[in-house]
Amino acid sequence: MLIARVALDIPLATLFDYTVDAAMEVVVGQRVIVPFGTRQMLGVVMECVANSDMDAAKIKPLTRALQDCAPLSAELLRLLNFCSEYYRYPIGQTVLPALPTRLRSDEPIVVKSIVSYRLSAQGAALDLSRLAKNKKVQLRILNLLLVRAHSKAELKVVATTVSAALKLLVSEGWVEEFEQRSDGLTPSPSDKTSSHSTKPPSGRGEHIFNNAHTLTSEQQVAVDAVTQAQNFQCFLLHGITGSGKTEVYVHLMHTALQRDGQVLLLVPEINLTPQLEDYFRSRFPDVGITSLHSGLSEKVRLENWLDAQQGRAKIILGTRLSVFAELPKLALIIVDEEHDASFKQQDGLRYSARDVAIFRASQRGVPIVLGSATPSLESFHNAQTGRYQMLTLQQRANASARLPTVRCIHTKQNLMKDGISEILLREIELRIVRGEQSLLFINRRGYAPVLMCGGCGWLSDCKNCAGKMVLHLKDQRLRCHHCGYQIRPPKVCPDCASNDLHPIGSGTQRVEEILQERFPAARILRVDRDSTRNKRAWQTMREQIHANEVDILVGTQMLAKGHDFPALTLVGVLNPDSALYSSDFRATEKLYAQLAQVSGRAGRADKAGEVIIQTEFPDHPLYRALQCHDFNGFAAEQLAERDMAGFPPFHFQAILRAEGKVESEVYAYLNQARATATALGHAVEVLGVVPAALARRANHVRAHLLIQASTRRALQTFLRDWQFDLDAIPHSKLRCALDIDPLEF
Ligand code: ADP
Ligand code: ZN
Ligand code: ZN
Fold this sequence. Notes:
Strand content: 15-25%
Bound molecules: adenosine-5'-diphosphate, zinc ion
Shape: globular
Low-confidence stretches: 181-203
Oligomer: single chain
Mean pLDDT: 88
């Protein structure tokens, strides 16, 4: 009898066995419906075996096998199995969340007859060079139809606005619509009578490539190294901002496409994907490009996923979840801004998409490129010790674009106005006069304005958390960013009834106000999570910035990442200091990366840029290194410190987190876990039970226990054994999680 072993989205680290009816066709990777308790659930077949360890009488039959989508590939299942093992997370809760939501339900994927398009005789006779230049999408479509007929799905990957353009083309009488059968193999009868053939795509990997630049010699070296890699190899592309890393990616994509391969490009921010998608389309106008991220609707995400799975999409841009996309022809993975913390998922399967991508590349035997101006110290160390190959871009690609000068302003020795120094304000004024742009950068964390009482020092604490509530001026609310609790700001101090209540710290809204007072005529644009919540908003803002309709930008992290604003010549950093004294040993590394990145925004075109950092510690080595653009020096010093302290990348960490309503229960659990860990006698270091950085959140007490080992293997061996003990300690009232290679404490 055939037994299917099925992964279900249930918090149990096991597969579930079901008998398969002889008449039913079930294969590994298939989505199936099975009975579970009183419910019917969707699962994925992970194995098909002849015998089960379970009592034969107890095994229930599988209800139904879904046939609407090709089974998941063995490669993807292996990747997910690896993740479940490595991150010590239940297999079913690893596999199912990796799929688009629509594939987690039994609602069938309907692929109706495919609507396709071809040129009419009139369209074929068109002189495309005489078509208006601003009809880019229409032109792209016509160019494609010139080669052969295309289905709507195929055309969709060419532009997001393809439907409207097609309508216009059809109404002009240049393009005809016709229907193809859903299997796409046999042309419909109506098509046979047509003079336009739907011959299969011509040749392998032929595509249009708009080669914009001659590579610099540094870029060429990098491109050659990766192109020549026959097998798995991990490259660290360490290139200063503006050194043309993107151009290197484009050339690498070109080669991979020529070899008929697919390329996965991982990026940290959803916000970057539309702009990147457009950019890559302009370079590869007839190549299928798609994106995968959590901002897409369920329907679109499924379509894009299928585009990748069925090979229509050749370039896949995505945030961390796209590392689990089906990519049958995967030939190259690129992780842009590889140091970015958002590649790490902070709940459920706590995976690092960068690390999973490296495993995926090694499993598949293809090269992977990690790109950054400020690599993570883990990657940098791996490149220095030869595990990765270092590729360096030290020059800006545009020869006339120099690196910005970086200047520190001592906040205690200079005239300050509401947290902004007079020197910085004058520099901003100068830019306004010259018609250039300035950017004021605020690190949101820790600087959001909280309400303080001048009489007694009362602060707007959240009643549920250990943190402070943040003042939002627009809607007059005090809001906790951890639990969402909000109240109207009090008129008088709740403790001493004084009416001297004022905001301290400067949030983006506050800075915007101050600047508007000083420069009433200036056009100020605030860019943060609040102002860009609306999907289109950020797109519109970018256009405004590019059209030079903005004088001063005020923003958070979002603005630091990967944008190219040619008129921007001044960056002011308001108060970065607190990171220097954080309990997080990665805080300085993160601050350096952030400041280097935001500095890179200044002076990208032919105008020189200037960066002004307001600080109480202008002589701090971090700021000194920034001033000389000396990442290597900074990294060497940091690595020496990490080595001394026994931190990553010299040691490997896992953290057991627990949170619950009752403090004693949280600590009792962790202490017991600690006792069992020590008792196992492995070659690992078991540290003490300590409160989390945010010790209370939404009325839950949070604490953790850290484990360190000198090798990954030692840590993994220990964790495998420890898991049995952990499962045996009662913790039904707590939320507990193991976090492997944690980034937050
Ligand atoms: P990075 O991603 O490394 O910060 P970009 O890829 O954005 O840098 O490149 C910075 C600028 O240099 C872009 O405007 C790009 O078009 C230009 N550029 C890249 N490569 C070259 C090259 N080989 N020659 C001339 N300009 C280039
Ligand atoms: Zn008070
Ligand atoms: Zn709170």
